[in-house]
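Appendix B, Record 12. Input sequence as logged:
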Amino acid sequence: MSSPAAAAATPLAQAPQLAVVDAADGAGAPSAVAHPTASGSKASGAPAQKSGLKVDSFDKRTGRAVISGPPKGSKPSPAKVSAGDVIASAPAPGAPSGVLAKVTEVVGTTDHGTEVHTEPATLNALLGASKAEGKVAVDPAAVEVEPLLSGVKVSWAKRGDIHFGPEGAKLPMGNLRVDVGTSIATAEGAPASAGASVHGFVQLAPEVNFSYDGRGTDGRAPGTASLGLSGDWSAQWELKGRAAASTEAAPLRIPFAKLHADPVINVGPVPVVVNLDLTCYLQVDGDGKISVDVEQGVKGDFTVGGSYSRAKGWTPVSESDIKGTPVKATATAEGQVKAALGAEASVGLYGQVGVTGSVAPYLRAQGSVQASTGAGKPSVDGKWAAFGGVDVNGALQLHLSIFGTPLFERSLPLPGIHKEWRLAGSR
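Logged structural output:
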């Protein structure tokens, strides 16, 4: 095995180029192990090797793990591991977010394998002087959806013409859609005909972006790295009625579904477990005076994440090309209201959140007296306007140091994106 000095001197053109691909079945993804050099060096600059070792149990609080080798007959065999070995594994018992750990002590053998004590490890110990870059789509069928309101409907479509849910047959491959329809608090004193409600859907095709470049390094930290969430986004929703005024300057916020997935991507031989959480929500902010019937469709793409270089450290990344089109807009009375249908996301590796972000397309209406557009001739009496927009925000978290990069002292906010466009209104 090469020494750290030799690894640092390795020409860039000779550094291993690792593929970044979806592990078709996360539960069956292999483990990978990196062994320390003979001199006991922390990192060798050489990538890990695929391994037949299996993590049979893991206690994240204590670091205790039981690891077994290839079974002999019906019984597991002890694992050939030593202090200093670094292991990466797909989700395992006690470790639903995967394992990335360094063996600190071999305790002994048990009926289930070899018991060891571990401590957290970093990816550079496994990826070494290699280079990897890729984008992997999240299988919509692997996303667990927890409805938080009655009436929430889930649909998806995946490769092989497999689809699920009431809208599944209409969706493009790789898309997940969540529909919601709910009544919201109506302004006090409003007539029954002004009952407030929101109906619509969020549809997305999420992808995980991953890169690592340890070429020309001594294995202590990569030269560059990145992690992010991107994908296509579309939604259409209607805000109708006279919503109650916001209380204590806080908008009405209604989470309606939680989504979770732990996709496994293979970076060369290394199973990298990505933890993805999204909370879809409705948010209404208004003064309780205006009655509206506004509907908008939005479509585009988004990216939230972070990129690292030795020269600049970690830099937040946020991009959005989401645009909207009006379906209909009506406003009555003087006042203002804003309704968003968005998602808060967190992306991490092996159970450590690295990036948080929110994508929130919205509708906003303000006016005095009455106006309407849509089918037929527009009518206007007074001044009014309806707008669409999108807000993208988020932050990088301390746990991005899992790449082996220096720890930063505080979370770094993503550069916020705020875009707004006019849907309809009086001149």
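Helices lie at 4-9, 124-127.
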